[in-house]
Amino acid sequence: MAKFLEALHSLFKNSDIPYMKSIKTALKKVLVIRFSSIGDIVLCSPVFRTLKLQKNVEVHWLTKKNNAFINAHNPYIDKIHCYDNNYKTILKGLQSEKFDLVIDLHKNLRSFRFRSQLKCPSFDFNKINIQKYILVNFQIDLIGEPRHLVDRYFKSLERIGIVNDEQGLDYFYGEETKNPITTYPYIVYGIGGTYNTKKMPTDEIIRHFGNLPYPLVLLGGKTEEAAAAEIESALGDKVINMVNQCNLHTSAKIIEEGQFLISHDTATMHIGAALNQKILSVWGATAPPLGMTPYLPPQLLHQTIALDHSSLKCHPCSKLGGDQCPKGHFKCLRDLPSEMVNPLIEEMLKK
Q: Would strands 216-219 and 187-190 be described as parallel, antiparallel, or unpaired?
């Protein structure tokens, strides 16, 4: 089986070759496409920065309307184009811009439809879908390097002379954003996650993180309200419940001013990395080898620690997560011994 999978990997490893016509003029105006989600958009931030600083181009961004606010304060983006099921209207506006290049960082049918109609040079990146499939279904790691999504972005950017500036991610929340937390110091836990199998169960959160020396500030969206209430009921004044009580920029401010961040594999983790925060990342269905770990500058990599049950034979079981554990036991987040977790907490406290 292993030999078959290696042959399959060899067959498809070049399946993500991007489309790009020759560029006959110097780059002046570039469109970057990334529609969603929050974490993935944050992971695009080094592309905006290096395009602006290394190529001095006019940088445009095409995204979904409800995600435009994420980069509202980004100084490296000159114009944001908001897609809201208005394909013909937005396409007409994009065509009038006369872009020199389109960089597709979403790489789906919708983004391909836009770039094909703009009739200018374009390229995308290697999504390593075959390698990820092999890893999550057979626990055989054939991904290789570059592994991290951001590094795969930069690999594609090499063709226009962009190099990784090793400055990590960016997140800009604006001067008007204030921190509503008045109890210092505190530790932040982003208890959210798009999928259930990415999120540590509330009783396990209480068991492992209920005796921290500082208050635990809970962050998350509306879907985490019940979990947050349960944690707050169990831990009392050890918890400051901010779930579904602040917008993303305020959450970022709270994260930045905390002692450190605990987060599942979700947008909170990437925002923490963009703010150069210390991070204890918690991994359930997904795993660090899939290439979505906190992306910090090299000199700050020591600030992040992964809580990952890597010894499980069924781990990772998904590249995105799911509604329930396919094995039914959810051992990756229900079978974490205290002797594994406690030393990591102590190490974070020392940092």
A: parallel
pLDDT at 24 over 90: no
pLDDT at res. 121: 96
Rounded Cα distance, 74 and 94, in Å: 20
263 CA to centre of own chain: 11
d(CA 228, CA 250): 18
Tell me the fold of 187-350.
Rossmann fold (3.40.50)
> Is 0.90 surpassed by the pTM of this model?
yes
Q: What is the DSSP letter of 70?
A: G
- With contact defined as beta carbons under 8 Å apart, do 240 and 262 qualify? no
For the stretch 185-194, pLDDT in tens is 999 999 999 9
Query: What is the domain partition of the chain in residue ranges?
Result: 2-160, 187-350
Q: Letter for the amino acid at 164?
A: N
And the tokens for 229?
Answer: 């209430």
Contact of 248 with 69, CB cutoff 8 Å: yes
Task: Label residue 91 exposed, middle or buried (CB < 10 Å: 0-12, 13-18, 19+).
Answer: middle
Domain 2-160: which CATH number of 3.40.190.10, 3.30.470.20, 3.20.20.10, 3.40.50.2000: 3.40.50.2000
Quick check: helix, strand or coil at residue 7?
A: helix
pLDDT value, residue 25: 62
> Are 22 and 53 in contact, with CB atoms under 8 Å apart?
no
pLDDT attached to residue 26: 86
pLDDT in tens, 62-115: 999 999 999 999 999 999 999 999 999 999 999 999 999 999 999 999 999 999
State yes or no: pLDDT of 2 exceeds 90: no
pLDDT of residue 23: 64
- Tell me if domain 2-160 and domain 187-350 are identical in fold: yes
Tell which phi-psi region holds residue 255, choosing left (phi > 0), alpha (psi between -120 and 50) or beta: alpha
CA 221 vs CA 10, 217, 242: distances in Å: 41, 13, 9
Adjacent-strand bridge partners of 307: 282
Q: Could you tell me which of 320, 289, 309 has the C-alpha nearest to residue 142?
A: 289
